[in-house]
Design goal:
It is built from 15 helices and 13 strands. It is α/β, with parallel strands linked by helices. Helix 1 (about 40-50) crosses helix 13 (about 365-390) and helix 3 (about 145-160) runs parallel beside helix 6 (about 200-215). Mean pLDDT is about 90; it is low at about 265-280.
Amino acid sequence: MDTMLNRPLALPCGQALPNRIAKAALTEGLADPVTNRATERHCRLYRRWSEGGAGLLVTGNVQVDRRFLERPGNVAIDADCDSQAREALRRFADAGTCAGNHLWMQLNHPGRQTLAQVHPAPLAPSAVPLELPGFGQPVAMSERDILDVIAGFARAAVVARDTGFTGVQIHAAHGYLMSQFLNPRANRRQDAWGGALENRARALLETVRAVRSAVGTDFPVSVKLNSSDFQQGGFSTEDCLQVVRWLDQERIDLLEISGGNYEQPRMMMAGRIMQKESTRRREAYFLEYAAGIRSACTVPLMVTGGFRTRAAMEEALCNGETDIIGLGRPLLTEPEAAHRLLASEMDELSSPELSLRLDPQGEVMDDQERAAAKIWSIQGWFAVQMLRMGDGLDPDPSLNVLHAFRQYHANERGAAERRQRAHANPVEQCQ
């Protein structure tokens, strides 16, 4: 059926995506927490998504320095990426491309958004801590540190290419390191990497250049960028438009638009009922920013967050507001949804986030668990759906929210404990 969703998209590098639906990046937490290698869970999960029909799958964030992780179960690629790690990545890539789709590795460095249990003193542009508990006290990066991180992105991109991934995405959104450099609230440097926007954007632009130089001209390189941090004095929409103009000159192949960070998590609110009416009517939370960004660049755009009906997706594509429809949470409960949308067998995706409720009545919970569940219960529910598919099971939309949160929390705690034991006993890391 010749709909906009079914049409291929030619990328500036010469490659083409087979359709206009993308599985956006979702942190998996499925890696071995001691070695941070990919596992068979990744293979099962991404094979299912590949067979689900999306033309592009973007992995959860793969860290470019194993010392600094967003969570203990991240895949990481650093200087000691050995043959076993590469073979695990090859199996991951083979599974994630089995249906002929693209699989792009999202590359990241969490900067100050590193949990203290992972590293108590994470690197960041400046020693400005998050206004949230549980994170390490950041240490301001030296110029050598910055250059090492840029080189790490380029090195990881080459590993991705050589192990069968068909592209990479540089994560410069959601308050991670590249986003921190852009944000004047987090970047208070007075040298060539801070101050004016041109200096704050330098780390990202130099990273894009290093990655492009390392992988060549015919390998897709994408960037995920905040439309805004939604914080007073942070990275603004006006800043975003200027950075987009600079990125437009750097031969990137796709720009994904998002927004927010851990302190202002707008990226987690897409599809929620608190959206204002004009945004809710068009569904996609960040689509309203795409028009201005479209005027600032010529590269293809991807908008993720809130799309739930095929009609809204087609309208956004036909109007030229976006070139790719990014889907995240819907593919955690309906992994075959892309195929059904493309075949016009489905008109609307489910929105379990609108009906999920944390109901701890009758449950014994201490104050710490109650506070954590209030913040992370919904995210935990979706994360457990991913764990289930990684284990070869079907998603379970009837899953109790509190029980899912406890399973998620136990999984994270177990991974953190294994990592800590391995660091205390270096022999375990080598096994």
